[in-house]
Specification:
This is COMM domain-containing protein 6. By secondary structure, the chain is of the alpha+beta class. It folds into two domains: 1-116, no CATH class; 120-185, Nuclear Transport Factor 2, Chain: A. It has helices spanning 2-7, 10-24, 33-42, 49-68, 73-82, 89-102, 110-116, 167-186; strands spanning 120-131, 142-152, 158-166. Strand 2 and strand 3 form a beta hairpin. The longest helix has 20 residues, at 49-68. The protein starts with a helix and ends with a helix. Mean pLDDT is 82; it is low at 109-116.
């Protein structure tokens, strides 16, 4: 991971660290590594999304463990150094700065930790389509609904999950949402 971190310019690494801290503070639902990876690649750095996601997971673990153990900035940097870390100097400087500025605000309550193991709903998009024909059937005229859910997994990675439903399946889906809404109104 240290080799991949060396590739990331300091400003992008700082942005990644700050997004992770914001996620751990429940200010944002997750870290959009796909968007950040695309911007890093546009700047001419060759890194893939899988490597960036691994780095984000490592940093998230680092910051959440440091918060759980109430580490000061110096204790965190000392621990990083004593672990035989071969992190580049710019990464250590960024970690020091971000932890010094925002680290103490990380909420590590038991409820927040339990909720973080599930993931978080971010957004939902849908569209109605009609399949007109296929290579095996000339006239389908089959309506369907495509739903795309944007979800932040427990580590904070934002991903899209898509699925299609027939109209009867969508009506059942809609009915269940209405039931949830009516239950929420009573709370």
């Amino acid at each position: 991971a240290a080799d991949k971190i060396r590739l990331i310019p300091q400003d992008f690494f700082a942005e990644l660290c700050e997004q992770i801290i914001q996620h751990l503070n429940h200010k944002i639902p997750g870290v959009n590594t796909a968007e950040l990876c695309q911007r890093i690649q546009t700047s001419g750095i060759e890194i893939n999304i899988g490597d960036l996601a691994k780095i984000a997971n490592i940093l998230s673990f680092l910051f959440s463990t440091a918060a759980r153990n109430n580490l000061s900035t110096e204790e965190l940097i000392t621990t990083l150094g004593s672990a035989g870390s071969t992190l580049p100097k710019h990464a250590v400087q960024v970690i020091r700065h971000v932890w010094n500025e925002q680290g103490k605000a990380i909420a590590v309550s038991e409820d927040a930790r339990n909720m973080a193991t599930v993931g978080q709903f971010v957004d939902m998009k849908w569209k109605l389509g009609v399949a007109m024909s296929s290579d095996t059937c000339r006239s389908l005229k089959y309506p369907y609904v495509t739903v795309t859910l944007t979800v932040a997994d427990p580590s904070g990675q934002i991903t899209d999950k898509s699925f299609e439903m027939t109209i009867p399946q969508f009506k059942n889906f809609f009915r269940q949402f209405k039931e949830m809404a009516s239950v929420l109104e009573t709370v």
